[in-house]
Amino acid sequence: MKYASRKYIDLILEVSSKWASWDPPHPIKVGDYGTIDKATGRFEKDGNIYDDPNLSFVRDHQPEILPPEEKMVFTSQTAQTHEFNLGPEVTIPGIAEASIKGQWKFKSGKTGAVLVIAQPRSSLISGNASALFKTLLDLDLPHLKDKFLVTETVACPAYGLYLSNKTDDTISLALLASTPLPIPVISAGGSIEAKWYSQTGAGVFRHGCAPLGPGQSYSFTPLFVIKRLRKRGTFGWRGRGAPEEEGEQENLELEDADKPWAPLDEDGEEEPFEDPVYD
Fold first, then answer.
1. Where does the source fall among the domains of life (predicted)?
2. Taking the domains of the chain in order of start, what are their residue ranges?
3. Is 210 within 8 Å of 216 (Cβ atoms)?
4. What's residue 237's pLDDT?
5. What are phi and psi of 159, to 5 degrees?
6. Highest mean pLDDT, choosing among 3-12, 93-102, 213-222
C-alpha cells in the first residue's frame, strides 16, 4: 500500500485521539516542533523549544513524567478483538503467563489497525502549561509560526503494531518474558528479556522490544500529541442586537492538530471531494 503509514496513523488517531508513529524507534520528544508530511503522516522535526537559547523561559515548564501503566491497546473500528486462543495443539512456553496477548479479526475489503503498547509511560507539558503556550503565541516567532508542537509523548520498552491488507485476516500477538514470571512482576535481580510471539496475516507487522524492569529503556514512541502553534482572531456571531463583546476575539490557545488530508479510502488515498449539488 503506497500510503500505508498515513492510513495507519489515520485509523489509530480515530480511536486514541493521539498521533501514531509508523516508526516508533524514531525519537520524538516533548517540546519538538515541526511539520506533518501529508503523504506519509510522519512528523518532521525542525527543533525543540527546550534547546532554543532564545526561549530560556521554557525551562521553568519542564515535562512531567507520569508513572507507567501496564499496557495500552488500540483497535480500529474495522477490527474485532477476540480471546487469545491458539488451540490445544499449540504449545508456546510463556503464553499462559503473558499479561499482554490477544487476537484480532479483520474484515475483508476493509483496512484495520491494532497498536499494543507494553508499560507505556507518558511525558507531557503540565503545571502552568497555559502560561507557556500563551507566551509562545505572544512572541509570534517566525520559526514557530503555524508549526506543530509535541505536548505529550507515550514511550515504552515494547510495542507491536499491525495494519491489515483488506483481507479476512486473524492475527495473534503475545509478549513473552524469558522467565516464568508474569511480565508486570519484575524480579529484584534486574531486567527481564522479552520478545513478541506473533501469528500474522498478509498485512504489515512491526514490533520492538527492550529489556523490561528496573532501569528499562523507553526506546520507542508509538504515540504522541501535537498542537498547532497558531495565533489568529476568531469572530463570534454578530447578528442584529448582538453585544459588541461577542464580536472579534483573540484566540490565545493552541489548536488541535487537524489531519492535513481529506478523508481516506481503504488504500489510504484521499477520497475525491465533490461540491454539493442543490436543486
1. Eukaryota
2. 4-238+245-256
3. yes
4. 32
5. -145, 160
6. 3-12
Please tell me the pTM assigned to this model. Answer: 0.85
Q: Is the pLDDT of residue 82 over 80?
A: yes
Q: What span, in angstroms and rounded, lies between the C-alpha atoms of 171 and 184?
A: 23
DSSP 90-154: ---TTTTT-SSEEEEEE-TTS--EEEEEES-EEEE--SSHHHHHHHHHHHT-GGGTT-EEEEEEE
**CA neighbours within 13 Å on the CB side: how many for 228?**
12
List, in order, residues 6 or more apart from 148 with CB less than 8 Å away: 33, 34, 35, 36, 43, 226, 227, 228, 229, 257
Cα-atom radius of gyration of the chain, to the nearest Å?
22
- Contact between 153 and 123 (Cβ < 8 Å): yes
CA distance 177 to 155: 19
Strand 194-199 versus strand 170-177 pairing type: antiparallel
